[in-house]
């Protein structure tokens, strides 16, 4: 077997052999654009069209045993080269994955005329979705940290693991603004607020790609998903039309994407499945070209979502043939068809038939080549096989996963039960359908290790206490043996998420399960009840036999009755919600003395939960979206318009818990607000400073939040808009001065003529602990005339400092 150095040497030797004379594109010292132009000029139409294609299912035929490449299949599948190869790590160990990607690159260099390497793309929503990789908390849980620096580090770690296995591109982060919890993909998002998503999204992209123009050898190209409006589908049904006007589209749903393009210089964007006002995104030139490229200046790669070009025929009824679908997508701005070649191979004939211009092909191919040069693939196409095992699933990444899980938990309610006292708790009841399993969420594989809540508590308390388990309820019929006791248990998340025709659990034994849990609770000092959903009941609905959206947000099965029965025992109870979407709990909001929203916390779930329950870690997470009381309140988000919440007869418009909510084991005082509005005009800055104090006797972290309200305006504005936040660590009794520097241009909006303007008038500035917990409030006046703000003057983030 060749060593890495030998493979590298062979690769460069073959590249030199394949080229009769040295070409500019092989010279790394030349400007990228010169190299792109030189290579493009040497390519045939067939070679160009091959660069616009991806192989996935077909590409699986390339795999031999243990990562070997089937050369005969490569000759059949890749004779002209290829733009992308999808998910090469599937079903391979880390070392096997490196061998496989190296073998493909070597074959392409040795056996294609111009020796153009491939881009390998992978899924990495909350860690690389590959065997043995670190599984971080799901995206909605990561967003609950409200910690951009932490998000950066998570995605940097994910990039290192992807690149160590030979991958070059990650199909993430997801920047969809999520406005309907019935939607099964809400767990993949960073919540309901465009500003929060923009902050975290910019950090995610920089974590993936770094801050350099070219992408370092230990980073990958990021891909923003999904442009656009995907997060508010009609009825909460995946890929359904998005009922969005242009003003809301630009101000809410496009804002995070624009920020990531402008501030983080993302390399790739993926179009969305849905349609807006009758135009599916994959055929939407206004969205993909006029706005993304011409207005924002995006010069990267625009890729299709999986099979979405064909859905212009099969689902949208827009294109009557694959030829028409290919023309529509290419003309709209799509550069690469994913995950398999279907419509885009027809582009060769369409060019010859004068139905597609060569210029369109050249433009798309140039974008692909440009990203390959930026990734350094022509100079370094291979990956070191000897390094991968030390990087994938490393202890450092495991520690990061634990820290993230600890910061992600949101303490919704606490009537004095928490934190638990380790010296007084000797008998613990751990109850719930998945309390003995680590739920990972969608886009997961099997990490090297997981820690269940049951195991985490047993490890925390040791032999001095008894920690017993009762399942109490079942959710879905996905597990034949509901008592996982081996490494195989780690695979349930993946199996459940992929399972077709998911069914609810058989409830014939429901009462017996509840009775067993009640008996355990009665003989225990405390009951930790873990309920919620799983990856089979909340997930991406990608086909009619693979659904994941719901028409109810109630607890499935007999989980509600289980919690009521345990509460009725009188045993102090902590309710932990482990779920992918917000749930409605009815009377349990009032009856449960302590509630933690945990989402899916990743591979270190149990350790993190135990640390929070017993006070070794002070909870500090904040909700990145609103939790409704009932499904009848939908849509429910904090930044609604003034006329939206008149009221329900016999009902309530107030949510169960508001956006930004999250308690602590200490209390924080906000005081001494000072607002400097002397430069409160277009292109100016308003400064707001205040003192934040930890009033309690334990250390803690508070996420201070800045909101504004435009009191009177020419078009209606939300009642409240997040425009800044800062996570601040304070020791017991400590105070710090927090300063927000708010760009006035961040207050701009689209007026009645769709001009992006700053208008003079009163602005209410609010600072607090949550959107419904405002502690400080002061108004200031924006002065001057109406000022139109152009692209170069736009502001996306507020600068925040702490002293």
From TrEMBL:
Domain Fibronectin type III-like: 702-771
SUPFAM superfamilies registered for this protein in UniProt: (Trans)glycosidases (SSF51445), Beta-D-glucan exohydrolase, C-terminal domain (SSF52279)
SMART domains to which the protein is assigned, alphabetical: Fn3_like
Enzyme class: hydrolase
Reactions performed catalytically: Hydrolysis of terminal, non-reducing beta-D-glucosyl residues with release of beta-D-glucose
InterPro entries: Cellulose_Degrad_GH3, Fn3-like, GH, Glyco_hydro_3_AS, Glyco_hydro_3_C, Glyco_hydro_3_C_sf, Glyco_hydro_3_N, Glyco_hydro_3_N_sf
KW Ligase (keyword) present: no
Pfam families the record matches: Fn3-like, Glyco_hydro_3, Glyco_hydro_3_C
Chain's gene name: gluA
Signal peptide: 1-21
Superkingdom of origin: Bacteria
Family matches, as PANTHER family: LYSOSOMAL BETA GLUCOSIDASE, PERIPLASMIC BETA-GLUCOSIDASE-RELATED
Protein name: beta-glucosidase
Record-listed E.C. numbers: 3.2.1.21
Protein's organism: Paraglaciecola agarilytica NO2
Alphabetic keyword roster: Glycosidase, Hydrolase, Signal
Stretches assigned to coiled coil: none
Family stated for the protein in its record: Belongs to the glycosyl hydrolase 3 family.
């Amino acid at each position: 077997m060749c060593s890495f150095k030998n493979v590298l040497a062979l690769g460069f030797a073959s590249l030199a052999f394949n080229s009769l004379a040295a070409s500019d594109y092989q010279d790394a010292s030349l400007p990228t654009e010169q190299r792109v132009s030189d290579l493009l000029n040497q390519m045939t139409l067939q070679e160009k069209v091959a660069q616009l294609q991806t192989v996935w299912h077909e590409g699986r035929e390339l795999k031999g045993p243990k990562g070997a490449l089937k050369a005969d299949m490569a000759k059949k599948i890749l004779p002209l080269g290829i733009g992308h190869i999808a998910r090469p790590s599937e079903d391979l160990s880390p070392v096997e994955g490196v061998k496989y990607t190296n073998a493909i690159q070597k074959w392409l260099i040795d056996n294609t005329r111009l020796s153009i390497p491939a881009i390998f793309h992978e899924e990495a929503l909350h860690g690389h979705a590959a065997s043995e990789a670190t599984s971080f908390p799901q995206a909605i849980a990561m967003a609950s940290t409200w910690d951009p620096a932490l998000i950066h580090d998570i995605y940097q770690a994910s990039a290192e693991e992807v690149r160590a296995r030979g991958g070059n591109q990650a199909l993430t982060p997801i920047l969809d603004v999520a406005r309907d919890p019935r939607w099964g993909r809400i767990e993949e998002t960073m919540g309901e607020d465009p500003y929060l998503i923009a902050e975290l999204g910019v950090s995610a992209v920089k974590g993936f790609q770094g801050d350099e123009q070219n992408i370092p050898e230990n980073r990958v190209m990021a891909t923003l998903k999904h442009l656009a409006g995907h997060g508010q589908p009609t009825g909460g049904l995946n890929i359904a039309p998005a009922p969005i006007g242009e003003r809301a589209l630009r101000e809410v749903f496009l804002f995070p994407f624009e920020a990531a393009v402008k501030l983080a210089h993302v390399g790739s964007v993926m179009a969305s499945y849905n349609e807006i006002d009758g135009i599916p995104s994959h055929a939407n030139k206004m969205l993909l070209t006029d706005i993304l490229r011409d207005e924002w200046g995006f010069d990267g790669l625009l890729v299709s979502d999986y099979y979405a070009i064909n859905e212009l025929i099969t689902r949208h009824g827009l294109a009557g043939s694959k030829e028409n679908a290919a023309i529509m997508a290419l003309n709209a701005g799509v550069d690469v068809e994913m995950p398999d070649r279907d419509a885009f191979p027809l582009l060769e004939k369409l060019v010859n038939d004068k139905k597609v211009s060569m210029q369109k092909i050249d433009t798309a191919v140039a974008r692909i080549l440009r990203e390959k040069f930026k990734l350094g693939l022509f100079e370094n196409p291979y990956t070191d096989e000897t390094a991968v095992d030390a990087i994938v699933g490393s202890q450092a990444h495991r520690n990061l996963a634990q820290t993230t899980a600890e910061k992600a938990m949101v303490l919704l309610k606490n009537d004095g039960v928490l934190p638990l006292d380790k010296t007084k708790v000797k008998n613990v009841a751990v109850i719930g359908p998945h309390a003995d399993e680590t739920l990972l969420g969608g886009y997961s594989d099997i990490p090297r290790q997981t820690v269940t809540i049951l195991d985490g508590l047993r490890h925390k308390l040791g032999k001095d206490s008894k920690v017993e388990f009762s399942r109490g309820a079942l959710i879905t019929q996905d597990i034949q043996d509901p008592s996982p006791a081996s490494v195989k248990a780690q695979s349930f998340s993946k199996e459940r998420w992929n399972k077709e025709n998911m069914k609810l659990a058989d409830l014939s034994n429901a009462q017996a399960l509840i009775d067993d849990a009640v008996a355990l609770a009665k003989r225990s000092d405390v009951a930790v009840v873990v309920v919620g959903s799983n990856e089979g009941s909340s997930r991406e609905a990608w086909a009619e036999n693979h659904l994941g959206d719901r028409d109810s947000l109630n607890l499935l099965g007999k989980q509600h009755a289980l919690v009521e029965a345990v509460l009725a025992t009188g045993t102090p109870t902590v309710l932990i919600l482990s779920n992918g979407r917000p749930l409605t709990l009815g009377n349990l909001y009032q009856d449960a003395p302590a509630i933690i929203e945990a989402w899916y916390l990743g591979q270190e779930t149990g350790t993190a939960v135990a640390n929070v329950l017993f006070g070794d870690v002070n909870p500090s997470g904040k909700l990145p979206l609103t939790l409704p009381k009932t499904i009848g309140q939908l849509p429910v988000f904090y930044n609604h318009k003034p006329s939206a919440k008149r009221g329900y007869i016999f009902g309530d418009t107030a949510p169960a818990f508001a956006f930004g909510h999250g308690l602590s084991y200490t209390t924080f005082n906000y005081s001494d607000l000072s607002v400097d509005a002397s430069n409160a005009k277009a292109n100016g800055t308003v400064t707001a400073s205040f003192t934040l104090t930890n009033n309690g006797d334990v250390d803690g972290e508070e996420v201070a939040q800045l909101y504004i309200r435009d009191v009177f305006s020419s078009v209606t504005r939300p009642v409240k808009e997040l425009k800044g936040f800062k996570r601040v660590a304070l020791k017991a009794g400590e105070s710090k001065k927090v300063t927000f520097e708010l760009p006035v241009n961040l207050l701009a909006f689209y007026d009645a003529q769709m001009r992006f303007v700053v208008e003079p008038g009163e602005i209410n500035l609010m600072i607090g602990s949550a959107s419904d917990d405002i502690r400080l409030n002061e108004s200031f006046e924006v002065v001057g005339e109406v000022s139109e703000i152009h692209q170069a003057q736009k502001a996306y983030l507020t600068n925040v400092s702490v002293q």
